[in-house]
Each structure stands twice: as C-alpha cells, then as structure tokens.
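Box 4.2: Ligand-aware structure prediction
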Amino acid sequence: MSLHRRVHGDGWLLELHLVARPASTITDALTGLVGRDELRRRISAQLGSTHRGGEGFAILCVDLDRFKAVNDTLGHPVGDALLKKVADRLVKAARQEDLVARLGGDEFAIVQVGTGQPEAAEALAARLVDLVGRTYVVDGHMLNVGASVGVAIGSANGRDADTLLKNADLALYRAKEDGRGMFRFFEPGMDAKMQARRSLEIDLRRALALKEFDLAYQPQVSADGGGVTGFEALLRWKHPERGMVSPVDFIPLAEEIGLIGPIGEWVLRTACAEAARWPDNITLAVNLSPVQFRGAKLVTIVTSALAHSGLPAGRLELEITEGALLDNTDAVLSVLNALRELGVSISMDDFGTGYSSLSYLQKFPFTKIKIDQSFVRQMEESADCSAIVRAVIALGRSLGMKTTAEGVETEGQRERIRAEGCTEIQGYLTGKPMCAADAATLVCNMAPEGLAR
Ligand code: C2E
Ligand code: MG
Ligand code: MG
C-alpha cells in the first residue's frame, strides 16, 4: 500500500512539476540556458506587451564563427567547455531582464527588452561581437572563435515569434556572408534574396546528376605568332528555365554548399578526356577553386583524370587564384608541389585582383602568371593600368614565368601587350569560348567526326 501511495504520490508530484514547469522551460544541460520553446514563449509574451504599449524589444541571434574547427580538431569535451564559456559571456553581456537561450549547437539567441530600439540592440550586438570574440583558455588551449549576430526588432520586423526569429536568422546569415565577426539588422529584401538562393541551391544540387553542365574551351594564342597554344576549359551551366548561368554566379554557392568538389572533379575528367584528342603540342588549362585544396583528394583526382584520359601531365595546366594561398598556405604549397611532381604546370590566375602578395610568386614556382582582364581592358585609357601590366610582365620574365594577358578584345590592346613582351593572349579578339567540337576542329583542322576517338 505504502509503495503504491509513494508511486502514486510521485506520479502526482511529477504531474505538478510538469504543470508548474512546462517542458519548454527545461534548460539546456550543458549551459543552463533555456531552449527554443521558452524563447518563443518569451517573444510572444513580449509582442503582447509591446502591443499594449509596453517596452520595445529586439531579438539577437548569435552564431559562433569557426566553432566547428575547435570541435573537429580538439574534440567535443573542449568544444563543450568552450560553449559554456560563451554562454557565460552572453549572460554577462545581457541584462537581468533579458533572456538568453541556446538554440542548439553553437547557436544562441537573446531577447533584449527595453526602450530605445534599435540603438540599444545595436550597442548590445557590438558588445557581443567584441566579448564573444575575445580569446578563451580551455584546457590549456588558447581558442579564438568569433561571433556573428543578426538582429530583428519587435514588432517592426515581425508580428509573431516565428517570423521574428526567422528574420533575425536571415540577418545573421547576411552577417556571415559579409565576412563574419559582425552584426547585421534585418532588412525586408533579405527574405526574397534568401529564397532565390535556396532555389538556386536546389537546382545546383540536381544539375550534376541531370548532366546540365558543359564545358566551353577558349583558345590561348602566342602573342607573337598568333597560333593556338592551348585552351582554357570554362564551366557552363545550361539551366532548363534560367538559361545559361554564369560560373561567377554559381561557383561561390557551389563552394559554400560543398558541391565544388564533385563539380571540379567532373570538369577535370571531362576536360582531360577532351584534350587527349588534341594534337600533342596543345595544352589544357583547368580552373581550380581554393576549396578543392582542402582535404587530401586533389592529387589523387588529378592523377586519376590523367591516367583515365591518357593526357600527358605535361599538357595540363591548373589555374589557381591568390585566394587558394590565403589560408593554410603551407598545406596548399605541399599539394601544389605534389602536383608539380606529377609533371602538371600551375598558373596564377587573375593576378592583380586579389591580395597580390609578391611573396606567393616567390614561394611557389608558377609556370605562368595570368594578368587579370580588368587591367588589360583599361590599358589604353589608363596609364596606371599600363604600368601595372608592364610591371607584371617584367616580373614574370625575371622569375622565369610565362605571362598571359586575359580579356584582350581590341587590336590596340594586343599591340600594347605584344610590345610589352607578354608571351600569350587569351581574349575575345583571338577566340571566344567555344564548344568542344569547334575547339577540336580549330586545332585538328578537320571535322570532329574524323577525329580518332
Ligand atoms: P577566369 O578563369 O579568369 O576565366 C576567364 C573568364 O573571362 C571567362 O569567363 C571568359 O569567358 C572571360 N573572357 C575571356 N576573354 C574575354 C574577353 O575578351 N572579354 C571579356 N569580357 N571576357 C572574357 P567565364 O567563363 O564566365 O568564367 C568566369 C570565371 O569563373 C573564370 O574566370 C573562373 O574564375 C571561374 N570558372 C570558370 N570555369 C570554372 C571551373 O571549371 N572551375 C572553377 N573553380 N572556376 C571556374
Ligand atoms: Mg582561369
Ligand atoms: Mg582569369
């Protein structure tokens, strides 16, 4: 009997407990903060109060930058300890009447209550970026993670909790996109932009399977004689409704969502197979994204593409931009050296537009420097651009590297380029990007059907 009463009693107690403390207020075991349900409840309550003439409020969504790297390299216990410290700093930055919640992973949110919006939210957002971004010491490790913050103002940016949270999240996304370690306020246009991006992402994920990609080949010609020395493979996306989508518009997205790996591999394999049909003296240039240097697969993929196609390594040039050398330079240099050992050449693409650190040219023996088209285009009008082009050509010559001028469109530009001693030209003047069959016809001087396959 007594046992029964106890069980009955506990059950009743438990029920009471649940009534007094709904599941939504159950705190996050790691940080002691409330979760998403309580956050939504608080926002709804606050909306009601604001509606009745009470104080204004703001929602600040906070996401850590580079947290994954901490978890991946130092393990989850260190990651967890870091999250606790972050939570402490958030609580310290907020006031007593504000609510700090953990939404999961490295995502947090704060409901800031009080008049003087949006100025108060701006001040808090700036404080969060600063405080959370300061160094942490965990287990003897000095850790640096940043914070990105997105802000939505109640009720101006939404009339219910979910809309406000979604809009703060959109602003957070923008803060990340703009370079991290900063805060952004929600603006109405963000939603449409996000929707457009999402649908592009869905389409892009399907494009590879549906064979919507194709390659165009643009001739590279020698600056003195004018003969074709090679082609650069340029990615094309034939979208069934959007039509031709420029690589400039979808490659950054492909990099972000992790699709550049498989797309880049497809480009390499397809272009090598095509180039293997060209005469022996014609080279193939393929663009590589900086993202393809992360992970250890690149050398294996290049080796395999060469082996499968039968293209000699000496005819393949890989084009990289300065961005590839920006972070983790040593790791990238070791991949580049391994590629050079295969016999592949490496070109520095779009030189002059990135960080243009001359030390990159000294750290790695590039075969070729490609002068960005923005300089070439303005050469005739701008003495500065002429001077830059001249200097880069001279630099290439003294470092033993070839130079290619990109985007040559007029005879005047060609004349100047040639006079400066540039070795190669690539531009609409000497050949627009063309389909594989036309490229083959150009160099083989025979119909593509007649080519040995
Ligand atoms: P890029 O590697 O610098 O390629 C040269 C771009 O300039 C190409 O644009 C080409 O069509 C364009 N171009 C060449 N000559 C002229 C000219 O005389 N006038 C003008 N106005 N433009 C000219 P495209 O094909 O739109 O490619 C843009 C960029 O997209 C490329 O710049 C490259 O960075 C990237 N890209 C293209 N294909 C791939 C790829 O397979 N993988 C990766 N990672 N990036 C690629
Ligand atoms: Mg290129
Ligand atoms: Mg270029």
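In the box above, the bound molecule is C2E. The pocket of C2E (ligand 1) is lined by residues 218, 234-235, 246-248, 251, 264, 267, 287-289, 319, 349-350, 373, 406-409, 426-428, 433 (CB under 6 Å).
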